[in-house]
Amino acid sequence: HLSIIMMMLNLLLLLFFTFTLTHGFQIQPISIRSSKPVLLGAHQQDCNHDEPQPPPDLFVTRRQAIATTTASAVLATTTPAAHAAVTSKLTTRTNVQYLEAEYADSVNTNGAPEKHLPVVMIQPQEGEATDGGTTKSVLAQVNHVMDPEKPHFIEYMWIKNVDSGECVACKAYKATDPSPPSISASIKEGTKIKAFLFCNLHGLWQGDEVVV
C-alpha cells in the first residue's frame, strides 16, 4: 500500500510540474489594503496598496467644499464677460460694487480711452433747493457702441460719491439699448463724484473726479 501511495504522489508531482511548464505559474503576493479611507471615482470599484492614494487635502467638510466651489466659480474666470455672467442674478447695485472691487487693479487699462471713459456733465439749469441743500442734475455719458451681434456693449454705468463711497446712481443696460449709454441723477452741490462703467469686453473704466 505504501508503494501505491508513493506512486500516486509522484504522479501528482509530475502532473503539477508539467502544468507549470506548459501554462506558466506565478505566485501572486498578497495585497495589503490601506487602512486609510480613500475617495473612489465613479469608474473605480476598489483601491489597493499599489494604487496611488489621494492627498490629505481632498478630505474636506461639506462647508469647505461649498465654499471652494463658490470661490472657484468667481475667481477662476478671468474675462470681464465671465465675471458679469456670475453676477447676473444679483442686484445692479451689488453688481457694480463687486465689479469695482474685482477690477480695481486693471481699471482704465483695456480698450480705447476715447470709447470707454465716462464724461460727467452738470446740467446748466438752476439747482433744486431741498432740506439737504441745493441739488443739480448730473449726466454721465460715454461714446460707446451698443452692438448685440458681437456682442459689445456697456453693461453698467454708475455714479459714486468720492468721499462717502456711496453709489448714488446705477443702471444696467442690454446690448440692444440705444447708443450712447448714459445715466443721470440729482446730486447735492459741492459733492465730489466719479462716473464708472463696465464694458463686457474691456472691463472697468472710471472717469475724472468732478465737483457738482
Word description of this protein:
The chain is α+β, with helices and mostly antiparallel strands and 212 residues long. The protein has helices at 2-23, 62-75, 80-86, 92-102, 113-116; strands at 119-122, 128-130, 133-141, 154-161, 167-172, 182-188, 192-199, 203-206, 210-211. The strands form two sheets. Strands 4, 5, 7, 8 and 9 form a five-stranded antiparallel sheet that branches. Strands 1, 2, 3 and 6 form a four-stranded antiparallel sheet that branches.
Key terms:
5 helices; 27% helix; 212 residues; rod-shaped; four-stranded antiparallel sheet; alpha+beta
Main sheet record:
5 strands, antiparallel
Dominant shape:
rod-shaped
Beta-strand percentage? 15-25%
Q: What string gives the helices and strands in order? A: HHHHHEEEEEEEEE
Round the mean pLDDT to the nearest integer and report it. Answer: 75
Number of strands: 9
Structural class: alpha+beta
Topology:
Elements: H1 2-23, H2 62-75, H3 80-86, H4 92-102, H5 113-116, E1 119-122, E2 128-130, E3 133-141, E4 154-161, E5 167-172, E6 182-188, E7 192-199, E8 203-206, E9 210-211
Antiparallel strand pairs: 1-3, 2-3, 3-6, 4-5, 4-7, 7-8, 7-9
Short synopsis of the structure:
This protein has 212 residues and is an alpha+beta fold. Helix content is 27%, strand content 24%. The chain has five helices and nine strands.
